[in-house]
Design brief:
The chain has 506 residues and is mainly alpha-helical. Strands 1-4 form a two-stranded antiparallel ribbon. A two-stranded antiparallel sheet has the order 2-3. The chain starts with 20 loop residues before the first strand and ends with a helix.
């Protein structure tokens, strides 16, 4: 039954569509003047627009360092091309690993933008491409498989140390041929024997695959679980027991693909983001697609339009669990689209918001519905609710000017969005810290020194790490992180984060 090896085969696209990123034009109306060993931000105001990635034209690298490649040029991001240039690659890798996945939606988008930015390569003592590899690893682990593959394509021809990344990413995609050509070209220099076995089998060279399999089995060079799966895949050995992945098992992309190919059931809810990206295609059923959409939306990987499209694709078969949220989204969407009844819209809104307000997807809910809610005739109480929801969206600047916003929002909200509102009495330590960040900022001295040395990217990563500690309760870190982000011109990121901290109930 070698039909087990059949896959959906399409060529790896040279185009990646990764919507939901933020174009932080922080150089617009912002310039830095070197004066007395200090960088001075002249305006500290930022205009941010919603943008999607442009189509990517893949070109071969000549003398351009691979670590400099990106999908978003400086004209899109607003970041200077030199943002990484003066930093050590190993320092940046360490910071990226320490940061992990940001909690704040605005910080998530900022990090993705930085990972995808086209910029001069950092300083490195060797040619391991560690920085580029780490950027790709973070994209993959977040579930952003398309951008990861597009970034690897931009870096072609790949050196041997990056081929495993391409192979892994291609296994996790929903529309990609496994990168076996690159694997097989390396031959014995490709250190993962399991990958070579799989690729030889996929190419129809079952003899070579069997030889490598038997050698690896004798040398005990492949994990037992992977070896069992490969043996069944090659029809050399029949599996003596069914092996099912659990959260405790450190699944590899190859193991995951083999489980699926061999027809084993996998509990989707237990899988990490990297393994559920392919579910967005709908090929594994609507439930898997919905689960993937919810989870990936928490990490800023999919945008509001795609989220809504998945949630409104079919009629839900039940009214419990995830189906309750699906029904609520559909009711509100239909009410806003076709109902002339204010009462119907308001009932649907209250029900849906009750389900989403305490979840990590409250911001994407706001992104989906805010524009239509503000165009709909509502009673004053419901309009106040819509305004509060809308302040979690990227459209908050327009919402704040709504006359009803004065009655709907706490005075502190205006203090983050209107420079004329400075005298607000904070109700707690969090509010006091945020107000200080905007009106009595504290930028650490090392930040000024790093900026003077041209280490902008490093400064931002450090600030995002501090922000995570601040969100966890360290008010000094919160003060310094937002102060720093504002100092380098990321005003909108700072505003959205402050609003999210005050308004979010997650």
């Amino acid at each position: 039954m070698r039909t087990k090896a059949s896959f959906i085969v399409t060529s790896i696209a040279a185009t990646a569509i990764f919507t939901g990123t933020v174009s932080s034009k922080f150089l617009e109306n912002n310039y830095y003047v070197y004066n007395s060993q200090e960088l001075i931000n002249s305006h500290n105001l930022v205009q941010v627009s919603q943008t999607a990635l442009p189509e990517i034209e893949v070109t071969k690298l000549d003398d351009v360092p691979r670590s400099s490649v990106g999908l978003l040029p400086p004209t899109v991001t607003g970041f200077p091309a030199s943002m990484w240039k003066e930093s050590q690659a190993d320092d940046l890798v360490r910071l990226l690993r320490e940061l992990g996945s940001p909690t704040s939606p605005a910080a998530q988008k900022l990090l993705f933008q930085m990972l995808l930015a086209e910029a001069e390569a950092p300083l490195s003592l060797d040619d391991t491409e560690e920085f580029l590899s780490e950027r790709i690893s973070i994209l993959i682990s977040s579930g952003a498989i398309d951008p990861a593959i597009a970034l690897l394509e931009r870096a072609s021809p790949l050196p041997p140390q990056l081929v495993p990344k391409l192979f892994e990413a291609s296994l996790l995609g929903s529309q990609y041929e496994p990168a076996c050509k690159q694997v097989l070209e390396l031959g014995a220099n490709y250190k993962n024997d399991a990958g070579r076995i799989y690729c030889h089998a996929l190419e129809g060279d079952w003899l070579t695959a069997s030889l490598i399999y038997n050698t690896s089995k004798a040398l005990d060079s492949i994990e037992t679980s992977t070896l069992v799966l490969l043996g069944e895949f090659l029809e050399i050995d029949e599996a003596t027991q069914k092996i099912f992945p659990t959260p405790e098992i450190n699944l590899s992309p190859l193991d995951f693909k083999l489980y699926e190919t061999l027809g084993y059931h996998i509990v989707r809810e237990d899988l990490a983001n990297a393994f559920i990206f392919s579910d967005l295609s709908g090929e594994n059923g609507w439930y898997a697609q919905l689960t993937a959409a919810e989870k990936l939306a928490e990490y800023g990987v999919i945008d509001a339009n795609r989220f809504l499209g998945i949630f409104t694709a079919y009629e839900p078969p039940s009214s419990s669990g995830i189906w309750e949220r699906v029904s609520a989204i559909q009711r509100l969407d239909k009410a806003l689209a076709s109902s002339d009844s204010t009462k119907e819209v308001e009932l649907a809104l209250r029900n849906a918001w009750q389900l989403f307000r305490f979840t990590a997807n409250s911001s994407i809910f706001a992104e989906i519905f805010t524009p239509r809610l503000l165009e709909t005739k509502l009673t004053p109480n419901s309009e106040i609710m819509a305004i509060k929801i809308g302040m979690l969206s990227s459209n908050y600047n327009n919402i704040i000017s709504n006359p009803l916003a004065i009655n709907a929002l706490e005075p502190i909200i205006f203090a983050f969005t209107n420079r004329e509102v400075q005298f607000v009495k904070p109700k707690n330590t969090l509010e006091k810290t945020l107000l200080d960040a905007f009106y009595r900022p504290r930028v650490p001295s090392y930040v000024r020194l790093q900026l003077a040395d041209g280490k902008l990217g490093e400064v931002i990563l450090n600030a995002l790490i501090q922000l995570e500690r601040g969100i966890s309760g360290d008010m000094q870190d919160l003060l310094e992180s937002i102060s720093t982000l504002r100092h380098v011109g990321l005003e909108r990121v700072s505003q959205r984060t402050a609003l999210w901290l005050i308004l979010s109930e997650t």
